[in-house]
Write a structure and sequence with these properties.
This protein has 89 residues and is mostly beta strands. It has a single domain (6-87), classed as Rieske [2Fe-2S] iron-sulphur domain (Rieske Iron-sulfur Protein). It is built from no helices and nine strands. It has strands at residues 6-11, 14-21, 24-29, 40-42, 47-49, 56-57, 63-65, 74-80, 83-87. The strands form two sheets. Strands 1-2-3-8-9 form a five-stranded antiparallel beta sheet, with no helix packed on it. A four-stranded antiparallel beta sheet has the order 4-5-6-7, with no helix packed on it. A hairpin with a 2-residue loop joins strand 1 (6-11) and strand 2. The relative contact order is 0.22.
């Protein structure tokens, strides 16, 4: 996975987006905090976009625009050798 690319995975039965930044990996719940629609990563804008009501979250999961009441929940990420392990929050 290249810098600023993202991958959707399942952790404990929940959709999680893992994003690779310049300094490593970050993981967030893929469920918008407004109504639970799945967000998508926009590599060019470096933002998460919710297709349901136009919500926008920055690369750290903070709300930038739209109706969400709170940021995207984060997950812990561990790099073990050449593997990335996402731990439930």
């Amino acid at each position: 996975m290249g810098v600023d690319e993202a991958k959707m995975i399942q952790v404990g039965g929940k959709a999680v987006v893992v994003v690779r930044g310049r300094k490593g990996f970050a993981a967030f719940s893929a469920a918008c905090t407004h109504l639970g629609c799945l967000v998508k990563w926009d590599r060019n804008k470096k933002e998460f976009l919710c297709p349901c009501h136009g919500a926008v979250f920055d690369r750290n999961g903070a709300v930038v625009a739209g109706p969400p009441p709170k940021p995207l929940p984060t997950y812990r990420v561990k790099e073990i050798g050449n593997k990335v392990v996402v731990v439930p929050a």
